[in-house]
Amino acid sequence: xxxxxxxxxxxxxxxxxxxxxxxxxxxxxxxxxxxxxxxxxxxxxxxxxxxxxxxxxxxxxxxxxxxxxxxxxxxxxxxxxxxxxxxxxxxxxxxxxxxxxxxxxxxxxxxxxxxxxxxxxxxxxxxxxxxxxxxxxxxxxxxxxxxxxxxxxxxxxxxxxxxxxxxxxxxxxxxxxxxxxxxxxxxxxxxxxxxxxxxxxxxxxxxxxxxxxxxxxxxxxxxxxxxxxxxxxxxxxxxxxxxxxxxxxxxx
Amino acid sequence: xxxxxxxxxxxxxxxxxxxxxxxxxxxxxxxxxxxxxxxxxxxxxxxxxxxxxxxxxxxxxxxxxxxxxxxxxxxxxxxxxxxxxxxxxxxxxxxxxxxxxxxxxxxxxxxxxxxxxxxxxxxxxxxxxxxxxxxxxxxxxxxxxxxxxxxxxxxxxxxxxxxxxxxxxxxxxxxxxxxxxxxxxxxxxxxxxxxxxxxxxxxxxxxxxxxxxxxxxxxxxxxxxxxxxxxxxxxxxxxxxxxxxxxxxxxxxxxxxxxxxx
Amino acid sequence: xxxxxxxxxxxxxxxxxxxxxxxxxxxxxxxxxxxxxxxxxxxxxxxxxxxxxxxxxxxxxxxxxxxxxxxxxxxxxxxxxxxxxxxxxxxxxxxxxxxxxxxxxxxxxxxxxxxxxxxxxxxxxxxxxxxxxxxxxxxxxxxxxxxxxxxxxxxxxxxxxxxxxxxxxxxxxxxxxxxxxxxxxxxxxxxxxxxxxxxxxxxxxxxxxxxxxxxxxxxxxxxxxxxxxxxxxxxxxxxxxxxxxxxxxxxxxxxxxxxxxxxxxxxxxxxxxxxxxxxxxxxxxxxxxxxxxxxxxxxxxxxxxxxxxxxxxxxxxxxxxxxx
Lengths: 252, 262, 324
Hints:
The complex is a heterotrimer of chains A (about 250), B (about 260) and C (about 325). Chain A is mainly alpha-helical and about 250 residues long. Chain A has helices spanning about 1-35, 45-60, 65-75, 80-85, 90-120, 125-150, 160-175, 185-195, 200, 205-210, 215-250; strands at about 40, 45.
């Protein structure tokens, strides 16, 4: 029981870490809105609170950590064990990922409630957007999970995994709506973002839930998500084949 | 004092060799530091694309603030955090016993045991960005401001070090506290922005609970000439107080670890 | 003359949290911490003169490490006095710490990723050893322990035995007067164990350093220590010469014979331990040993006969069992 409490405590600690960034940007952008007379980029002061709280939740649902642990998996031989099983290792990772998130909700939800009480966000939920948000979020998770699992495979070819991960996180900071809602970014960045998968992994479900999109836009984006998912899966399958071939040849 | 320099000399030399030979690669470290700085600067650019001032701070001042952030963070990550991180591991695996049977002050040994030399890149980047911000500012920085900046920087160093020691000392009682240090790092990122823009409750936390305000915002305020005499005095007094408190707490921790009766 | 080590009425009691099983007990423990006192060391008295090599023997959990920790200042005794060279270890005075050294079998003070010689250098500075002394001591240790090829390798590239040799060397760079060796040979192969024992003996003879060595390997104690302190359940069971230990705690002798006629019936002579065609071994109570031997020699055609004490492990086992 004590072990459970300690485990729960570390969950709280992890969660505090993942809340801080959205809270910081929430405050920064609210101040900018205030300085600009109450609104900037189509977002009112208390809409930023809504944006970042929803962002936090969507990020929680879609995030993965596999790129941080894949290298040690190879180094310490767990990968060899996994390759011997008849099931592709990605399944185990997916179920671990989802299970962890469900458990973490017990810590996450109270935190979200507290944040709502503190920052008084303004939500614009509509029935259709809530309904569409379900497939949007599931697809977002699928795309992000597949892409990040593929990213993790670089560990087969280099030890400089940290630098690559850091680059990835820097990119998604800007292109997935974490630094700022997409509408606040320079137009060139917005266009580039629409051609990249990152917007569809996080910012799209957030904007959908906040009522920032028309049904037409939402449906188009869902189709694009499907496209990215197909691409990501193809990329994963081909890279995995190459990776395993090399791994077995070297005989780790 | 001489003792400190003698020990520091050999520890730093050995720590540096360690880094250079086995752990890190200069080019990768440079890349990571530059990427980190670039991301932060880009963030400031995006914010100032939409406004001219944030909580009264101009873009140039915010850039200086970022420079101070990297400077202070880099300095701590150079020696203090890796060393105290290792101390926390050694409490768990029992190697602390070796440290405690050495004829040298344990707090000293424990504070300088590791030297991540490549973090000097963060320090240098911080200084560069800091200067850039100062140069592009509307008014020039006065010599007095620079002097006061120096004082607040020293105070910041003392405050953050003492805070770290207090945190690390907890390892004597709560053996596995690495997770708690993680909170500190997350909260520290709030220091990239002036603490004055945060709501009061968060400002309070970032001042008294996790000394981010005194570590970053206060020196930056000194540079922009916003520093009030009261704040300056608080910083200096807090620094002195924390040095003594942390030392006392550390000794308490060692006593408790060795089962001394009260 | 000041004794090297003096312990008088040393006690160490730990308060260990007690937690029952089940949810109710767990919840209760959050509110009210129940502890129970565990006596790790009970009324230990010992005196070691300078230059002695003393073995501290006992099973796991007997109190050896706790006693060593009290003698090195790592633990404060609950009651009682500990003194090393007249200093109270718990005060951790620098002059005291300069004169002792601690080697722990399972743990390394050497830095993992850097060459051995750099870890040596670090200790040289910490212990304020002069350059000349350092070079002299280093040369001696390199010669005695055969470290030449190891000095410039990072510790992680060394085998377990090589690592232990370097651990001992780094611990001796400041020429301590008192060596506390806590299970230094654990996990090492037989050859390396022997080499380390030889080194310790030589070192003691050359420098006159006092050695307190804990072990649960009998071979360590037999080879190194004339004097043995046996500790179990926190109390000292025996403190004296190894031969006396054997004498006091053995009630039996092992008598082994080699026969010319393999088919001889040996029943009725005494407790047989082993029997193969031409050889047999008996376990005979001490007082009957003489009579038994003459009987054997009279009745049977014996090619060879030896009278031995049982293996020391057995003796120690029985010592522990007696006190349990």
